[in-house]
Amino acid sequence: MIVDRDVELLSFMSQWQFMIVRQCAEYLGCSEQVARRRLRSLRSAGLVDVTVPFADYRQVYWVNKDGLKFLRKSLPVDRPRYGPKISQFVHDRILVDLAVSFHRENPSYTIFGELEMRRLDAEAVSKSEETQFALKRWQAGRYVSVFPDMSAVKGNARFVIEYEHTKKQRQRLRSLMYSYATSTEVTAVKYYVAPAAYSQAVSIYKELEPTLPLVGGKPKLQVALYEDKGV
């Protein structure tokens, strides 16, 4: 039997490629045993799928097409597959850790993952309405739409959160950081950066710092080192 807490968890899960049991427990504020019970209910209802991608036997869950239909959500056209991608597994897991942590510390904000932002903007385009989340960045002689890893919204305030797990092409990262920091639609931006990419991000930040707008007396863009707490 599906209860309100199951629907709450399912809706949050639908914004990410996948979630692990620990993250579900932290999001719900319960034990892992209770989280597993909730996940079993969702799986029994056919709304989530599960796999064990690595030899550590840890289960990974994601919302399937029936789960999206249950939530009355469409599948993003440009991101047709949910579930873990091995090449991006650590990045995607850490991104959910950041989202869950932000949710626990700032429950009054509504969190939007990249999948949800793409879905909502695609629906807006299909209805000839103005998009909510895509930002425009100049690239190769034209403007392209870019989506952050996560947005947190409360009233008119919109915070953008990015996680960099590995180094990007320097000019691309600089352009992205500057685009977020100068966007009038974004209140503040925070980059969480893994140790492997931290020196590059800090170097670019220092280049941009003199031109960055101020929010509350601080640069609108902030960069922080993120140490992975593991699975």
Element layout with pairings:
Blueprint lengths: L3 H10 L5 E2 H8 L3 H13 L3 E4 L8 E4 L1 H6 L18 H17 L4 E4 H13 L8 E5 L2 E5 L3 E5 L2 E8 L5 H13 L5 E6 L1 H14 L5 E2 L2 E2 L1 E5 L6
Parallel strand pairs: 8-9, 9-12
Antiparallel strand pairs: 1-3, 2-3, 4-7, 5-6, 7-8, 10-11
Helix pairs in contact: 2-3, 7-8
3D architecture notes:
By secondary structure, the chain is α+β, with helices and mostly antiparallel strands. The protein has helices at 4-13, 21-28, 32-44, 65-70, 89-105, 114-126, 170-182, 195-208, and strands at residues 19-20, 48-51, 60-63, 110-113, 135-139, 142-146, 150-154, 157-164, 188-193, 214-215, 218-219, 221-225. 41% of the residues lie in helices and 23% in strands. The strands form 4 sheets. A 5-stranded mixed β-sheet has the order 4-7-8-9-12. Strands 1-3-2 form a 3-stranded antiparallel β-sheet. It is globular and about 55 Å long. The protein starts with a helix and ends in a 6-residue tail after the last strand. The model has no long low-confidence stretch (mean pLDDT 92).
What's the short version?
The protein has helices at residues 4-13, 21-28, 32-44, 65-70, 89-105, 114-126, 170-182, 195-208, and strands at 19-20, 48-51, 60-63, 110-113, 135-139, 142-146, 150-154, 157-164, 188-193, 214-215, 218-219, 221-225. It is an alpha+beta fold and 231 residues long.
End-to-end span in angstroms? Answer: 29 Å
Q: Name the strands of the widest sheet in spatial order.
A: 4-7-8-9-12
Strand content: 15-25%
Largest sheet: 5 strands, mixed
Q: How many whole angstroms does the radius of gyration measure?
A: 18 Å
Q: How many helical stretches?
A: 8
What is the typical, i.e. mean, pLDDT?
Answer: 92
Q: Give the overall shape.
A: globular
Class of secondary structure makeup? alpha+beta
The residue fraction in helices comes out at: 40-55%
DSSP, total strands: 12
Uncertain runs with pLDDT below 50, 5 residues or more?
none
Order of helices and strands: HEHHEEHHEHEEEEHEHEEE
